[in-house]
Amino acid sequence: MSHGTSVGRRKISGALPKFLVVLVVLLSGAAAAVDKESIEALIEAEHWKRARALIEPLFRANPGEPRANFLMACCYEAAGEYNRALALAEKAVAIEPKNADYHLLLAFICGRQAMRAGILRQIGLALRIRREAETALGLNPNHVEARIVLAEYFFRAPGIFGGDKNKARALAEEVVKLNPALGYLEQASLARRERKQDRMEDLYKKAVEANAQSYRALMALAGFYSYGSQSNFDLAEKYAREAIKLDPGRSGAYGLLAQNSARQERWQELDDILGQAEKNVPDNLNPYFQAGRTVLQDKKDPGRAERYFRKYLTQEPEPTSASPAQAYWRLGQALERQNRKAEAVEAITTALKLDPGLDSAKKDLKRLRSNVFLD
């Protein structure tokens, strides 16, 4: 499994709706006798490692079954393996061309590819995104996620490719009528790009009011209160803890609480949160990475950051979390802050062996090697 680009990829696309999670859960029917609900529950909670362990044998046993191809394509997308994801999504569509979900997956994967493509290829991908999403909506006029993907397309695309912010807003309004919580979240996504902070707060609140059992809505509101001029750590903690109460087996809320505790230098509370997270989600140590990065960025306690990064590196991360290369790079930064330059060089060299394209690490290594030589 490839991890090298996962962090950068998620930073770019973090504003997009969590399409795969919602889409898979909305799917009906089963591909085989495998426990379908188990797979869907794992994907909904973004336990991709566990989900893949179930999906891979399902796919091997049913290589010609469209839903097995769909699910395997989702796993490849989550891991940033877009070419493999696209091939399987295309196969699912070829086998079952009237399935709206499969067309929409194609649109989504093309969107991911477009973020890393050159200008000329972006043109072709952009046209395909719109075509596949509109096909999905034609096949299922009530498709919530098709409207969200199209709203994102119309809002982001230049006018020459049909971009139209008014169309995007209209589609988001339609989503509100079909699924209020998702609709308000999409409206908040559009408002964020227009930097309408006051409108964002109201929309996130409406999403929670529309569905108080939505982990995603609670986390969106908690995240809103965690950053920027509107930050309110008490409210962020309130909604993050409500998310944990709703589903203690997901890591996202623990990571957010860990970051906020680190910013406030509430060290005992931070360690308690990390301990709780590890107990309840032992196969996802992402809260340790989030805590370490926050401590490091705030220039507070590099020794503590080092401990957290080393802990994070004790197991394979989720494909949507920071890659091992990213963690070794951050570890090198923490070591440098402690004036342990030779160890920092070693850690960052390891990062670049894992991901030679990590440009930030290249710059740090060049500077460190120069400093070590001068010392």
Description:
By secondary structure, this protein is mainly alpha-helical. It contains 21 helices and no strands. The protein has helices at 6-13, 19-26, 36-44, 48-61, 66-78, 82-95, 100-114, 119-139, 144-156, 165-178, 180-193, 197-210, 215-224, 233-246, 252-263, 267-280, 286-297, 302-312, 324-337, 341-354, 359-374. Helix 6 runs antiparallel to helix 7, helix 14 runs antiparallel to helix 15 (252-263) and helix 15 (252-263) packs parallel to helix 17 (286-297). It starts with 5 loop residues before the first helix and ends with a helix.
- List the uncertain runs: 1-17, 25-36
Overall form: globular
Helix and strand pattern: HHHHHHHHHHHHHHHHHHHHH
Helix content: over 70%
Oligomer state of the chains in this structure:
single chain
CATH superfamily heading of the domain at 1-141: Tetratricopeptide repeat domain
Terminus-to-terminus distance: 39 Å
Beta-strand content estimate: under 5%
Under the CATH scheme, which class of the domain at 1-141? Mainly Alpha
Write the layout of secondary structure elements.
Elements: H1 6-13, H2 19-26, H3 36-44, H4 48-61, H5 66-78, H6 82-95, H7 100-114, H8 119-139, H9 144-156, H10 165-178, H11 180-193, H12 197-210, H13 215-224, H14 233-246, H15 252-263, H16 267-280, H17 286-297, H18 302-312, H19 324-337, H20 341-354, H21 359-374
Helix pairs in contact: 2-3, 3-4, 4-5, 5-6, 6-7, 7-8, 8-9, 9-10, 9-11, 10-11, 11-12, 12-13, 13-14, 14-15, 15-16, 15-17, 17-18, 17-19, 18-19, 19-20, 19-21, 20-21
